[in-house]
Write a structure and sequence with these properties.
alpha/beta; single chain; 6-stranded mixed sheet
């Protein structure tokens, strides 16, 4: 199948329909959610409420016990492994701890996915990596040959974002993008996420505990509690909500 067999644009970039997942106990219970193309949706909630499980479902790394998950118009239950790999190539993943390869330079980390895909020649990869590092406010001449251990936490986070966006994915997933960062660096990273959304028009799903950051960057916020969404809507509507758990969660944030 061609790497471009799946269209980047669809009525809903991500859709969960009556999804339930249980391990030793129920994690998600009859959850439904639509993420529009080019929208930034933040999923917030306490630890253990199923936020990371949602990311695994969208990536196709886990199947729901009940219900369907569709990505860019394609039900993950209805396509085979090869088609899932093709679809996954259009998804960028920003991991909580950046998850950079310690033995690879910054340049090699950002180039890794491009080289693995085999669809770009090396001169084009070099150009794309330099462009992408600049896009996340890193000087390619200064950081390309550095190892992850030589970078600050904020710089490692930006390199992780650069690696995720280098293939120019249609969908970008963030797992706790501000975790472990000081307030100033957190503000820098969230401002970068906003700018990338505006410049790349990529659909973003962000899992986070950082309510204040998510209020700034998200078009909509979905609050998980005991396996269900108790609120889904715009940040202003969440502040105005009279739903009891929503108010208690905001008060504790």
């Amino acid at each position: 199948m061609s790497p471009h067999a799946f269209p980047a644009m669809a009525a809903a970039a991500v859709e969960l329909d009556q999804v339930s997942v249980a391990f030793a106990r129920p994690v998600l219970h009859e959850v439904s959610l639509r993420v529009a193309t080019a929208e930034t949706l933040a999923v917030i909630g306490e630890s253990g409420t199923g936020k990371s499980t949602m990311l695994r479902l969208i990536l196709g790394l886990q199947q729901p016990d009940v219900g369907t998950v569709s990505v860019m118009g394609h039900s993950l239950r209805a396509i085979g492994r090869a088609e899932q790999r093709t679809l996954r190539a259009q998804i960028g993943m920003v991991f909580q701890g950046a998850a950079l390869f310690d033995s690879l330079t910054t340049f090699e980390n950002v180039a890794f996915g491009l080289r693995e895909s085999g669809v770009m020649a090396e001169p084009a990869i070099r150009t794309r990596v330099r462009e992408t590092l600049a896009l996340v406010d890193l000087d390619p001449d200064e950081v390309s040959q550095t190892l992850p251990a030589q970078l600050s936490g904020g710089m490692r986070k930006r390199v992780g974002i650069a690696r995720a966006i280098a293939p120019r994915p249609a969908l970008l997933l963030y797992d706790e993008p501000t975790a472990g960062l000081d307030p100033l660096t957190s503000n820098t990273v969230t401002a970068l996420m906003q700018r990338l959304q505006q410049e790349l028009r990529v659909t973003s799903v962000v899992v986070s505990h950082d309510v204040r950051a998510m209020v700034r960057i998200a078009d909509r916020i979905a609050l998980l509690h005991e396996g269900r969404f108790v609120f889904v809507g715009a940040p202003d509507a969440m502040r105005a909500s009279d739903e009891p758990y929503t108010q208690s969660f905001l008060a504790a944030a």
